[in-house]
Amino acid sequence: FTTEWALKDFDIGRPLGKGKFGSVYLAREKSSKFIIALKVMFKSQLQKYEVETQLRREIEIQSHLRHPHILKLYGWFHDKTRIYLILEYAPKGELYKELIKATRFDDKRAATYIYQLCVALKYCHANKVIHRDIKPENLLLGFNGELKIADFGWSVHAPSSRRKTICGTVDYMPPEMVECGVYDEKVDIWTLGVLTYEFLVGKPPFE
């Protein structure tokens, strides 16, 4: 991969998903034939919702994380109207869709996902990164069905590990965040318990 990209460097394939600020497409880097997922976001939308700083932080954090259970961010580029993130392609898609299809996971499958999530979060926390929005929609599945944490939009690099910002998704929020208290990386540990329940039962405990 080069360090200077433009849209002309990629063959764009089918859409993989759509979000609030743009869409994700299957793509191939022309010279290497390397398959990636290209996340395309409109600058106007990012400005409208005042999330430019959040995106900058997401890029900075995710591009420095290298772990088998964390989706890789290879790089980014922009043009006049859009910002593009070059992401690792996870062929088996969202874990959320697998859970909907299966209704709930058996013990072995649930334990495998929770273990993989544990080792990925241990790595994040060792690098002073708090994800703050772990949920099935933000977990993808790789070529061999292995779990990968994605979407670091709410993540923060917190060497002091003492935060007060309320963020994430209500079903997965720990009490200290709901009560607007001070919290640390243990907010991610809380979601492990919530997800263990959800994987085995088929719905979050506090829905």
UniProtKB/TrEMBL annotation:
<keyword id="KW-0723">Serine/threonine-protein kinase</keyword>
<keyword id="KW-0418">Kinase</keyword>
<feature type="active site" description="Proton acceptor">
    <location>
        <position position="133"/>
    </location>
</feature>
<dbReference type="GO" id="GO:0000070">
    <property type="term" value="P:mitotic sister chromatid segregation"/>
</dbReference>
<dbReference type="GO" id="GO:0006325">
    <property type="term" value="P:chromatin organization"/>
</dbReference>
<feature type="binding site">
    <location>
        <begin position="137"/>
        <end position="138"/>
    </location>
    <ligand>
        <name>ATP</name>
    </ligand>
</feature>
<dbReference type="GO" id="GO:0032506">
    <property type="term" value="P:cytokinetic process"/>
</dbReference>
<protein>
    <recommendedName>
        <fullName>Aurora kinase</fullName>
        <ecNumber>2.7.11.1</ecNumber>
    </recommendedName>
</protein>
<keyword id="KW-0067">ATP-binding</keyword>
<feature type="binding site">
    <location>
        <position position="20"/>
    </location>
    <ligand>
        <name>ATP</name>
    </ligand>
</feature>
<feature type="domain" description="Protein kinase">
    <location>
        <begin position="10"/>
        <end position="207"/>
    </location>
</feature>
<feature type="cross-link" description="Glycyl lysine isopeptide (Lys-Gly) (interchain with G-Cter in SUMO2)">
    <location>
        <position position="135"/>
    </location>
</feature>
<dbReference type="GO" id="GO:0005524">
    <property type="term" value="F:ATP binding"/>
</dbReference>
<dbReference type="InterPro" id="IPR008271">
    <property type="entry name" value="Ser/Thr_kinase_AS"/>
</dbReference>
<comment type="similarity">
    <text>Belongs to the protein kinase superfamily. Ser/Thr protein kinase family. Aurora subfamily.</text>
</comment>
<keyword id="KW-0547">Nucleotide-binding</keyword>
<dbReference type="GO" id="GO:0030496">
    <property type="term" value="C:midbody"/>
</dbReference>
<feature type="binding site">
    <location>
        <begin position="88"/>
        <end position="90"/>
    </location>
    <ligand>
        <name>ATP</name>
    </ligand>
</feature>
<dbReference type="Pfam" id="PF00069">
    <property type="entry name" value="Pkinase"/>
</dbReference>
<dbReference type="GO" id="GO:0004674">
    <property type="term" value="F:protein serine/threonine kinase activity"/>
</dbReference>
<keyword id="KW-0808">Transferase</keyword>
<dbReference type="InterPro" id="IPR030616">
    <property type="entry name" value="Aur-like"/>
</dbReference>
<dbReference type="InterPro" id="IPR000719">
    <property type="entry name" value="Prot_kinase_dom"/>
</dbReference>
<feature type="binding site">
    <location>
        <position position="39"/>
    </location>
    <ligand>
        <name>ATP</name>
    </ligand>
</feature>
<dbReference type="GO" id="GO:0030261">
    <property type="term" value="P:chromosome condensation"/>
</dbReference>
<dbReference type="InterPro" id="IPR017441">
    <property type="entry name" value="Protein_kinase_ATP_BS"/>
</dbReference>
<dbReference type="InterPro" id="IPR011009">
    <property type="entry name" value="Kinase-like_dom_sf"/>
</dbReference>
<feature type="binding site">
    <location>
        <position position="151"/>
    </location>
    <ligand>
        <name>ATP</name>
    </ligand>
</feature>
